[in-house]
Amino acid sequence: MSSILPFTPPVVKRLLGWKKTPAGSGGAGGGIGGVGEQNGGGQEDKWCEKAVKSLVKKLKKTGQLDELEKAISTQNSNTKCVTIPSNCSDLWGLGSGHTIEQWDSTGIYWLSSLPTNRSLDGRLQVSHRKGLPHVIYCRLWRWPDLHSHHELRAIDACQYAFNLKKDEVCVNPYHYQRVETPVLPPVLVPRHTEILTELPPLDDFTNSIPENTNFPAGIDPPNNYIPETPPPGYISEDGETSDQQMNQSMETGSPAEMSPSTLSPVSHGLDLQPVTYSEPAFWCSIAYYELNQRVGETFHASQPSLTVDGFTDPSNSERFCLGLLSNVNRNATVEMTRRHIGRGVRLYYIGGEVFAECLSDSAIFVQSPNCNQRYGWHPATVCKIPPGCNLKIFNNQEFAALLAQSVNQGFEAVYQLTRMCTIRMSFVKGWGAEYRRQTVTSTPCWIELHLNGPLQWLDKVLTQMGSPSVRCSSMS
Description:
By secondary structure, the protein is of the alpha+beta class. 20% of the residues lie in helices and 21% in strands. It has 2 domains: 5-178, SMAD MH1 domain (Smad3, Chain A), CATH 3.90.520; 187-465, Tumour Suppressor Smad4. The strands form 6 sheets. A 7-stranded mixed beta sheet has the order 10-19-18-21-22-12-13. Strands 15-14-16-17-20 form a 5-stranded mixed beta sheet. Strands 2-3-5-4 form a 4-stranded antiparallel beta sheet. α1 packs across α3 (41-58). It starts with 9 loop residues before the first helix and ends in an 11-residue tail after the last helix.
């Protein structure tokens, strides 16, 4: 960094001195979320310097710069808010505006310098990259491996937290906490299969035509924590919450509302064995399909954030690039659809929850039984997610409560939960009752996600339960 420091103000030097580097980077140019590895340590150092210089210029209130330095140097959350405007789309003075060209794996965007209209999504731009301000500076000074704003939660004392959607946003990195993955209580399973309580089974939607819904549709699940979402004009519409009333009825009882004590069935003197949840090395597996034909190899996701896009990177653990895949049976409709996948979808696995964010210029369509149950929709409902919006598509705690409830119903009820662990998602073209295509296998390009952690948990529970109560023989 010595080559850039002689022209750097002392306060910027001091702030840069507190920059965090990723583990294993050797302390040199590790930078923001691994971008340094892609662009060289020197270029990364220059980018960090520009980000800090730009922030220093924007901190015009008396004492804010001192407060920022105090917070970073003492690692103290008992400091004041350090705020910048949240609605300045060209906060970094790039003037002519830029066009998004490519999204890297860290949530920072690369921008081309083509003359276009000024960027309107409200993210901060620093030398051809842009991102949410509190994410940028939390990544700079606290967590180099930070991927998304979903991973952050403001402390109670922060008056200008990102989720409050005020005219100013706090960028004090010690006013945010990392969202922790909740520990799921074990499910208590009887040694031998016995139906203890008669409860209605999951709806069978194998042969039904899916209903359709649009997102955002003013849905706000009761009593559940909703991740911090961007204010209007600050980022593309997030879609997690809305002031409108939901146009479909919500179920009053949600699995997420169950207490940990409900994770054990009524014992009736049975010998109950605890079956615990454990995180696998690969949190999900993704298969790509064109119509009813599987194409390419399965992608195994090890990173908490990944994108499925239409580009051609062959060796990135955080990207599943569909543009690489060939298919001799591909028709013109599939070819045209593939061209419109573009930046595709970003999937996050954070705090035991899975989110899907539409990065494409075209909508994506999601069928998630777990999500549908949360909002009181039919299990087969297909939800349209417009560009710039995201949706929580799976919640481990809700699944845990449902699993514990299903143990009371016996082997078959637990086995049915495998459907909950599979999520289907199509690009550009939708399917369902409101579309010409009524099955996912009629859509040109789609993917199927298998959530490995819940599936492995189901496997352990089913193994403990033994076998179905209804025997299957050669004569049945």
